[in-house]
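Predict structure. Chain length: 268.
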Amino acid sequence: MTSTRRRTGGRLPVALVLPAVLGLAFLLVPLVGLLVRAPWSTLPSRLSSPSVGEALRLSLVCASLATVVCLVLGVPLAWLLARGDVPGRGVLRALVTVPLVLPPVVGGVALLFVLGRRGLVGQYLDAWFGVSLPFTTAGVVLAEAFVAMPFLVISVEGALRAADPRYEEAAATLGASRWLAFRRVTLPSILPGVVAGTVLCWARALGEFGATITFAGNFPGETTTMPLAVYLALETDPDAAIVLSVVLLMVSVGVLAALRDRWISGPS
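Prediction complete.
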């Protein structure tokens, strides 16, 4: 390590260190300010209040269900992008990542015009099965899954591309079908990538706001998740907004701690 620093020039240049420190402060000071302003003495009682507890419970349930949806659909999609011999894979990959750069509120509008009662698909769901998804808890799950699935797909696809395909080829020579090879060989080898993608997906779903409020609305006990509760509490009860924000912050830190071996720990 010392020899590497000597080869790269010794002392760190001030022109790089100063902006780096300012950037670090820009990212950390608001979080520190949030923790300083948090009403720690009343935190347990506020977390146990009906409104906060309801929003927390709904957020955890919806984020978990959205993650299950993403796993069921996203892992096969990642396999198709990494292993499937289909035309236009580059275009498909770009389309899959669109929700990453799309403003969430636009995603909510898109879901509304597709799955709403007069939407392209929603009109048939309503007419044939009497199912209406907007402004329901199911709508929250779908909105969160829409914005969170790309995180899972990208993570799993990257793991699939890094995995050695020769093991799957060896399984095929022994008579295993592609489905059996995927279950017994491929999936165990990419399990760390699947776990990392799942954690990221769950965290993104938990913090979703724009698509949720646009597609599912804000109905206490049914669609009011923690981000929505934070937004509403800022006008009437700032301390409650801070408490919910601290909970979301702790979840984010927990996600980073779970993924520390993958992203946080760099080369020494």
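Summary: Residues 264-268 have pLDDT under 50 and may be disordered.
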